[in-house]
Amino acid sequence: MVHPPKRLSTFTDVSLYCITTAPDKGQSYAAMVEAACAGGADVIQLREKSMGSRELFNLCRELKVLCDKAGSLFILNDRVDVAVAADLDGVHVGQDDLPVEQVRRILGYRKLIGCSTHSIEQAFQAQTEGADYVSCGPVFATPTKPDYAPVGLGLVKQYRTMLRIPFVAIGGIDTTNLDTVVRAGADRVAVVRAVCGAKDVELSARQFKDKIVQCRRERNREFVRK
């Protein structure tokens, strides 16, 4: 069986970026990730803060096989050491984690580094330090980041016009407001509960992916007409 090729580090064809939630009782990370990939997730980020290093390493190796089979990128949140040990596609860090430039020294230049940013200044800093992409958010209020005030669509527009590297819009985005986020300039959208927390993960991922692609096309057609 020939597997789909891995996506480029430039994120050129990434639309849907899925971040895991803790599985419900009786479910598993493997089932969640496999379903999200089947629905069209371009990137899976594992966010798991309660496991020990060995258990997390074993889980990462299991999920990496599923993502490789689907051609999806597999990113680990925070744990640079485990990402290296499991030979993952990259790591995503926050503002309170290791600086991007230090992570780059550990990972080298063949792995992806993403960074959560909440202002254009933080985005510029991450870009300067060598991040491959940044996240912009939370765009809307979200229980995933209760301590952060929404940054709004205006910041999405700034990221679109001012950054050299790709960005992923995140935070409170669902199918009811997705079109406004894409029209503001986001080519890539990250979701947590909207896909991985859904009853039907595969269907939710497919619906989200299709709508992102549709909204991008409509936005680009409007831009050409102008």
Give a structural overview.
The chain is an alpha/beta fold and 226 residues long. It has one domain (16-225): Aldolase class I (TIM Barrel, Alpha-Beta Barrel), CATH 3.20.20.70. 43% of the residues lie in helices and 15% in strands. The protein contains nine helices and eight strands. The chain has an eight-stranded parallel beta barrel, surrounded by six helices. β5 (112-117), α5 (120-129) and β6 (133-136) form a beta-alpha-beta unit. The radius of gyration is 17 Å and the shape is globular. The N and C termini lie far apart (46 Å). The mean pLDDT is 94.
**Roughly how much helix do the residues carry, as a percent range?**
40-55%
Given as residue ranges, the uncertain stretches (5+ residues, pLDDT < 50) are none
Q: Any idea of the CATH topology?
A: TIM Barrel
Number of helices: 9
- CATH domain class: Alpha Beta
Mean pLDDT: 94
**Strand percent estimate:** 15-25%
Side-by-side strand order of the widest sheet: 1-2-3-4-5-6-7-8
Radius of gyration: 17 Å
Largest sheet: 8 strands, parallel, barrel
Distance between the termini: 46 Å
Q: Kindly state the number of beta strands.
A: 8
Number of domains: 1
Please name the CATH architecture: Alpha-Beta Barrel
Kindly name the structural category. alpha/beta
Instruction: Name the overall outline.
Output: globular
Element pattern in H and E: EHEHEHEHEHEHEHEHH
CATH homologous superfamily grouping: Aldolase class I
Q: Helix and strand layout, with pairings?
A:
Elements: E1 16-19, H1 29-38, E2 43-46, H2 53-70, E3 73-77, H3 80-85, E4 90-93, H4 100-107, E5 112-117, H5 120-129, E6 133-136, H6 153-162, E7 167-170, H7 178-183, E8 189-191, H8 193-196, H9 201-225
Parallel strand pairs: 1-2, 1-8, 2-3, 3-4, 4-5, 5-6, 6-7, 7-8
